[in-house]
Design brief:
single chain; alpha+beta; 5-stranded antiparallel sheet
Length: 335
């Protein structure tokens, strides 16, 4: 998830274990531990367009790296004499904070090398969006009130914020299973067999989901709206052919596109503007407008392929809010 959420979760969890010994220092240690794993983003500017997805959420996010990362996060704090006296608690707080990072990232759709080096599988449970204020805000409120300790506020406020965030994450798990069921019914109603499929929450919520599945080489995108206590609704989407690796690709292009194909779990589609995009993340709920991808530069003698981030379309946030609040663009679905 985003760095603020990562730091907030690490801080809240570390506070549960170490606040008695370290007080508010435990919150700061946990926050630093919770955020440190994302140091791997520095490799994105080394001249290889594939590095942003190759190395982000790699070994620094692996379970085996947790003790190392926790110690690294604690080292600056151990320079302080008063914290060196509590070095065991300092290490525990930073390690606990660091341990939350990989698991939280795995709860999103991006994919995390959680089991590296024993497995190269990117773990992504698709339970929550990479940015979701409803998960993060309870953590921040609990941490902030606990750290400031105003009159009438106790350390248990942090516990309440943590429980609220975890309950919201659990709600995302339930919604994910509901979305998978609706997706299966939707494909069956069309007479389609899903060769591969995925449902992911749209930005900032777990009520509207993006459905992707592949049938006979076509990628189908639809929207699914799941309001508790109400029947599911869907937004009829479109389909496009999966990207095909042509014989005209250079060796460099083929290498980078293969790496993007693995990262995108096979959901590569070439759009009208030439972008070969990772369609798991799209500005359109039931369409094809990837947030990122690559473009081939056939006439360039300097570079043959470049990373490309698509600009945010004007009015898209308003469309999502209207869909969330009023169901605009969605209709009842009865399999």
């Amino acid at each position: 998830m985003d760095p603020i959420s990562q730091a907030a979760l690490g801080s809240a969890v570390a506070g549960q274990f170490c606040s008695k010994r370290l007080g508010s220092w435990s919150l700061l240690l946990g926050a630093c531990g919770g955020a440190l794993a994302d140091i791997d983003v520095v490799w994105g500017g080394l001249g290889d367009p594939a590095l942003p997805w190759d190395l982000h959420r790699h070994f620094t996010h692996a379970l085996i790296f947790i003790p190392v990362g926790g110690v690294l996060a604690a080292l600056p704090f151990l320079l302080l004499k008063k914290l060196r006296e509590e070095w065991r608690s300092v290490l525990l707080a930073s390690i606990v904070g660091y341990a939350t990072h990989g698991f939280l990232d795995a709860a999103t759709a991006w994919g995390t090398y959680l089991y590296w080096p024993f497995s190269d599988q990117r773990v992504g449970w698709d339970w929550i969006s990479v940015i979701d204020p409803l998960f993060t805000l309870p953590l921040l409120v609990g941490i902030g009130l606990t750290a400031s300790r105003p009159k009438g506020i106790t350390r248990y406020v942090n516990t309440v914020g943590l429980i609220a965030a975890l309950l919201y994450l659990g709600f995302g798990v339930v919604q994910h299973e509901r979305a998978l069921s609706v997706q299966q019914d939707l494909a069956s109603s069309r007479g389609h067999t899903m060769e591969q499929h995925q449902v992911t929450p749209t930005i900032g919520n777990v009520l509207i989901w993006r459905s992707l599945y592949v049938h006979e080489g076509q990628v189908y995108a639809d929207g699914i709206r799941l309001i508790p206590g109400r029947d599911p609704e869907f937004q009829q989407g479109t389909s496009r052919p999966k990207f095909i690796f042509g014989d005209d690709l250079t060796e460099r292009q083929r290498d980078i596109l293969n790496r993007l194909h693995v990262f995108a779990e096979g959901y590569l589609v070439q759009e009208d503007d030439g972008l070969i995009g990772d369609q798991r993340f799209s500005y359109e709920i039931a369409g094809f407008q990837a947030l990122w991808g690559v473009k081939l530069l056939a006439d360039s003698k300097v570079d043959e392929i470049v990373w490309h981030n698509s600009p945010f379309p004007e009015g898209r946030i308003q469309e999502l809010i209207q869909a969330l609040l009023k169901g605009r663009g969605f209709e009842s679905f009865a399999p």
